[in-house]
Amino acid sequence: MPVTTKFRTDLIGEEQNIRFAAFRSLWRLWAGRMKAGQLPARADFAIEEFLDWSRYIGMFEVDPETGKLRVKLACKAMIELNNKEITGAFLEDICHPEVLEDVLEPYRTAAVRRVATQQQIVISGEVTPADLELLVLPMSANGQDVDYYATALHYTGRPQTPFDRTPLQVGLVNPG
């Protein structure tokens, strides 16, 4: 049976729409900082406010010159799945080219719609099945243009990830 990777991105307007219950309080924290329809800025949060989700939380900055997403803080789950520290790397360089557009979808949707998104990634086939949940919370220094994201990543099962199998077999990490 070939390996399949399926992606699903949803808009989050209410906390009960978040599939992984532990992320609901993170969404409430983010939503509580919105003012009159304006996105919160990264500066609106002290890093200590994210400690309850430290295993899951990641931070991405939009590079103003290229628009690429730079990992400012890699959570434990990101490091485990990539089998290395990825802080400072660009998401576009980490992801396998065949799934890059799918991986970027929740970030792009969050930026355009100015709402939180969640993405479910299901890996199945000739690998240990995995179910990944990603919550994407857009932020903006000016309230409008997204320049930062807080993310939360959780996965069930320990997938035989691209670090255990070839990247093309699983399809999440760039082989280069």
Secondary structure elements and pairings:
Blueprint: E1 4-12, H1 24-32, E2 57-62, E3 69-73, H2 76-82, H3 91-94, H4 100-113, E4 116-124, E5 130-139, E6 148-156, H5 167-170
Antiparallel strand pairs: 1-4, 2-3, 2-6, 4-5, 5-6
Labels describing this entry:
176 residues, alpha+beta, Beta-Lactamase, 6-stranded antiparallel β-sheet, 5 helices, 22% helix, globular
Shape: globular
Strand pairing plus helix content: what structural class? alpha+beta
CATH architecture: 2-Layer Sandwich
CATH topology group: Beta-Lactamase
Q: In the CATH hierarchy, what is the class? A: Alpha Beta
Rg calc: 16 Å
Number of domains: 1
Quote the distance from N terminus to C terminus.
26 Å
Order of helices and strands: EHEEHHHEEEH
**Beta strand %:** 25-35%
Instruction: Quickly count the helices.
Output: 5
How do the strands line up in the largest sheet? 1-4-5-6-2-3
| Mean pLDDT across all amino acids | 85
Structural notes for this entry:
- The chain has one domain (about 5-170): Beta-Lactamase, CATH 3.30.450.20.
- Helix content is about 20%, strand content about 25%.
- It contains 5 helices and 6 strands, in the order βαββαααβββα.
- The protein has helices at about 25-30, 75-80, 90-95, 100-115, 165-170; strands at about 5-10, 55-60, 70-75, 115-125, 130-140, 150-155.
- The protein has a 6-stranded antiparallel β-sheet.
